Each structure stands twice: as C-alpha cells, then as structure tokens.
Request: fold
Amino acid sequence: MSLAEEFYACSVMETLRGEDGNKFFNLHDCPGCVNHLFNKCYLTYHQNLSGQLRANDAFGIIPQHQVDQDVAFLETQYREWLQVIETTNHSDLLLQYVGKESRNHLKNSRKFALRRRQGSRLQQHAEKSVVLHSKYLYLKVRKFYQELKATEQLVTACGHTILIDGFAHFHILFRHYAQHVKEYQDDTSYHVDQNLNPENLPNELVAILQEYFHLIPCASFNRERTYVRINGTVYAIWFKAHQRHSGGQTNQVLRLQTFYPVTQARELEFVGALAEMVAPSGRGLFYKPIVQGAVTDP
Reply:
C-alpha cells in the first residue's frame, strides 16, 4: 500500500464513530496506520513534544490518557528514526540522502546548543525536534515520488541535462521551510509563499526550468545558478555537476542543489545586474544578456 493510500484509508478509519460517540478504531492498535499516525501526532505535538501543554485535535481537547499515549508513540518514533538517519550505508538512495542531510542538521543543532550553553534537557528537546521533523519531511518526499512513479525528473535543453530528485527536494524542505522549528539556523532564508506548494516542489522546478529554456537563449544559461522572480520574490536555483548512474551507464548532468528566496544584499546586487524577462506565466526570468555574440560569465 502506498503512503497516499495509507493516509486516505487511515484518515477515514479515524473519523468512524459509534452511536455512543466513541472511536471504532484506535490507530495505535493499527500497524498499517503507523505513518498516518506519525503525521497526525507530529503535527499535533511538534511544539509540545513533552505533552505538558493542552493539546487539541479536530474533535476538541485531547484527553490526557490519549496525550500520554501519543507522546510515548513519538518517543518511540524518535528513537527508531534516529537509528535510521545515523546509518550511513542505506541501499535506498532517498534514505541515504535523508540520513546525510539530517545528520548535518543534528550537528548544527548541537553546535548551536554549545554556543548558547543550553542545558542537556533543552538540547535533547532540540535534537528530538530535528529527528522527528526529518521523518515528517521524508514521508512527504517519499509520497511525492511514489505518486510520480519515478525517482527523478530530467530537464534536457541547450546541451545540458538537469536532474531533480529526492536529494534536492528533501534538502530544500529541511533547510528552507519551517523556520519555527530551526532556531539553530540563523543564516538561512525561508520560503513563505503559499503558492509554492512544498509537496509539489519538484514539479514547480521542472516548470520553471522548462519555461526558462523555452524563452532564454542557450548562450545566457549559467550552469552554476539561475534566478527567477515569483510573486515579487527573487529565488535562486543552484546546480552542480553530478555523475548520474542509470542502466549501467554513467552520464554527466547538472543536479539541482537548492532553491531559496534571495535575501542577502550581495546576492540581490548580483541579480540586479542581470536582465529580466517576464514570462507568460508571470514569472520573471533573469539572465546575462548576450553581448556581441558572447556572454560574459557573471
């Protein structure tokens, strides 16, 4: 059963009530609903991991015995997922990406705690928050690629192949979304445009790049980075050379690395020196103008 099927079936089960108003199913007793239950508990308690504050769901105040069960469940999930992300040799590529990115966030969280001289309890809470957030994002990315029925997307134009896969999707979601759970990141910009659906982000990026290559001359393409304006905000898209292995062959591609709103003055100054074309979609596409048949590298 796919994650989308699990989420749908378990959400229906969760709403079923008898004439007395009691639930037909306790999702804690349904092994097939563990991912749905995790999402539900994470969204309910991610800012209240100890369960000491009053908790609410769609049906009102959650009784304390249910809070205790949910918090214990999240503790188990934390310990199990910590083992997953600390493993460095996953055969599953997405888990390998997730593990490496999550370990980097844990490392940064620990450094932040040392700088702030946080106590052990506060530090443990911060690490648990990172680990649980990692699993929450992993489920989003896994669900996307299950529904896509592929593990990657390719955009080919101007003699280049750009690879968009779970590596970029997970990195962007972890680093540039959900600022409220990342106190340890004080040098990062965050997405706030609700029109950019984080769960559909790879498709959004494919659409941006396809439009770019359709309208901008190939000679203006910067293989390191490009910029786009969406709803008034300037975003950076970065690439890096990558060896793609597929079908027993190895090909050189440009792998999309990250996508974030530009807020630093120096980078905005760089963008200001570029030309901008407003596309039919309303996006602004930035590029280095061609001068006398050549483009000077920015």
Remarks:
- Strands lie at 56-57, 60-61, 152-157, 160-165, 225-230, 233-246, 249-261, 275-278, 284-287.
